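Changelog entry

Holo records now carry the ligand SMILES as an explicit input line rather than a separate metadata file. Below, a converted record for NAP, shown in the new format.
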Amino acid sequence: MNFRRWWMLVAGLAACLFTMVATAATASPREVLVLGGTGKVGARIVRQLVAGGNRVTVFARAGSDHHRIADLPVQYAIGDLTQAADIAAALHARTYNIVISAVRVQDNDPHFFERFMQPLASNAHATGVQQLIHHSAVGAGANLAKFAGRGWEKNPGLVERLKDQGIAEDILRASGVPYTIIRNAGIYPDSAPATGTAELTEDDTALTSMTRADVARLTMQCVGNPACLGKTFHIRDPSLPWRPPQPDQDRE
Ligand SMILES: NC(=O)c1ccc[n+]([C@@H]2O[C@H](COP(=O)([O-])OP(=O)(O)OC[C@H]3O[C@@H](n4cnc5c(N)ncnc54)[C@H](OP(=O)(O)O)[C@@H]3O)[C@@H](O)[C@H]2O)c1
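Structure line, unchanged by the conversion:
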């Protein structure tokens, strides 16, 4: 065998080895922590993460209702998002590649998102989380000015909650954790099927309704996707009129 052939053989073997190692690395399951994973949006995300071969831990309060994900092989981190120590303990108990927050404030606390994002983002940064996907709201912080004249200030507490969402977004952006923010609005009842026409957009004037099924589907598009890092998205579904069709307890 002459030198040229020998060199080509070595180079070919090296390329094969590199491909095998790279494939093994990308195929290995990711560790994902989901906050709100017992809820309507979060449970859909958890189900799709498990189906995709990821190892999922759900952060939930003691005594929380697990019925939406009871059939799934997930672990639980028991804690309350209002307790910084619980958040720190969850983040340090395991090495997570990805953290997803799909949480809904349940007692209208106007500082809820700010309170939990501070320890969440700092502990995610300290533990090397590679992506934090946070579900926020259209109108968060300065984005509210884009929707002036819609009368949102007449909805008791809404402006305060949107201000809180804006502060949480800013904490996340400044934290150094690679992040993706997905803002939702006008969510249809949980029974509404995916339309398949919803899309992520960086147009921060976009305002349409949406289904939880599509919110979960679009979240999955961003999981581990470098194209979503450092981005703040709205969800736009051209097939749905603004506001869900009837008052529903799922609505905010
Ligand atoms: N704009 C709209 O029309 C609209 C309507 C509804 C929802 N949304 C948005 O959709 C997203 C998810 O809502 P959803 O319908 O899935 O809400 P959901 O079904 O009410 O679920 C809320 C989740 O948040 C968790 N959570 C709340 N407080 C917590 C705390 N102190 N500690 C730990 N976990 C806590 C709950 O966990 P536990 O199991 O421990 O209770 C639950 O998993 C949110 O971004 C929400 O703002 C928007």
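Spot-checked after migration. Confidence is low (pLDDT under 50) at residues 14-26. The domain at 30-236 is CATH 3.40.50.720 (Rossmann fold).
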